[in-house]
Amino acid sequence: MFLIAGCGKSAKQLKAEQKAKEHAEIESYQRAYKIAVMPTLDCLPAYLLKDSMLYDTAKVDIRLKEYTAQMDCDTAMAGGSVQAAFSDLVRTERLKHRQKVLMHYLTDTNLNWQLIADRSSKLKKLSDLSDKIIAKTRFSGTDLLSNKVVKKAKPKYQVFQVQVNDVLIRLKMLQNHEIDAYWFTEPQATKALQGDNNSLFNSTDAGVHIGVVAIMDKHRRPSDETEFAKAYDKAVELINKNGVKYYAALIKKYMQADDATVRALPDIKYTKVGPPRRADLIMARDFLNHNK
């Protein structure tokens, strides 16, 4: 018994080992290539490449930082706590030109938004938005789209626009019938439409493509960026080959979607790494210049 006890580690040794382990984990996290993501389907390639390890871990350590509001992604980008982020051109161009955050675009994404009216509001067409309230995020793609919708609708009375940043809170508000209409992307849009609510506008139908993956330049790491881009393209190939619904487990895990919502999702195609369209960049910049 004394021999066995003598072979065991002392409390001091165990504490030192635990401290060393924690220090190593902190250093590993600091070196990792961190990407800000949302619980939305434009981010599915990132969730897939991370869960399926579609990259060489010896070359890059990819970590995902999950947020439910675009403004929190902004904070992470501006503060330098992430190396990349899924966002939209309105938000990123504002960060670049108003807050002087150095960044460039790795790729555009298939982010699209629908304006969905609560069935209890009885909104059937855009002109019905007169004297109604819609939920958006200020200085974002949904802000730009709200302006487009109002101009197109030409309502008799004012359309009130309130800021609700968290996409999951928006969905809960719809379920509780709190205001009239909300901007949703997938899979929240499909969930919203399952409740007999009405889609008034779709950004894809309007030819608006503003989703992007932005790379922070202040501490740019080109080799990590290259590995991330390769893994992103692998994920896109798999999703397009198998279909979005094949990845139901990922969608439920990261986006809080249920089985019925996954089954009802549209057939969504993804594109490989490529820059955003110049027309969309100009549109985002023009919007910001007119809404300072």
From TrEMBL:
It comes from the Bacteria. Residues 54-212 form the SsuA/THI5-like domain. It is found in: Periplasm. Keywords: Signal. Belongs to the bacterial solute-binding protein SsuA/TauA family. It comes from Prevotella veroralis F0319. InterPro entries: SsuA/THI5. This is SsuA/THI5-like domain-containing protein. Coiled coil: none annotated. PANTHER family: ALIPHATIC SULFONATES-BINDING PROTEIN-RELATED (PTHR30024), TAURINE-BINDING PERIPLASMIC PROTEIN (PTHR30024:SF47). It holds the Pfam family NMT1. GO terms for cellular component: periplasmic space. The keyword Signal applies.
